[in-house]
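User: Hello, can you help with two protein structures?

Assistant: Certainly.
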Amino acid sequence: MRRTMWRQHTAHLIYAGEKKALGNALPQLVNIPILVGATWLACMARYVLIKWPFLRLKRHFQANFRASDQADASA
């Protein structure tokens, strides 16, 4: 449900920007590629700004030993 939420906000921003800039909305045949591109850009921005730093932090705290090293230590 949350994914749909930010997609709706992206669509609302696109339609509001069109009405403000052009005074009217563009045809749906033109809007569909614009909406897909804007949604893709919002998704990528979310990944770069939110997920990527956390994944980098998680990678920083990973263990530095292999499973074979752990088996040798317990034997």
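That covers the first. Now for the second protein you mentioned:
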Amino acid sequence: MAWDVALRVCVSFCTGIGLGALLTVPFTGALAIAFGFGGLILGAPLALVAAIIAAAAAPSVYRRPILWSVVASAISLGAYVLFDPPMNLSAAQRDGMATLFATCCTLAFLWLQRDAVRAAQ
């Protein structure tokens, strides 16, 4: 049961990055593919840590999935801003894309958790 949450975290991470990349196609064109692959490669260690934490705290994740999703998004965005501070317009636009990707990942996780949350209630 605990690894079920970890699997959902990994699947929602990949789904969110892919969906976020598709949403940026009108603005970035073919670079959206590179942004998607870059997000998958660079975000994989953070997603792995999030999956391990979610597996360790599975009962709490089932009780409060929205809180866990918001906190995970905030931590990942904080880590991104820490390593790529918005010093100019281009960096601020990358922060906006990271926010979009994190939001897509959060929504994908909540969508995957909907049946588990109903069963836990």
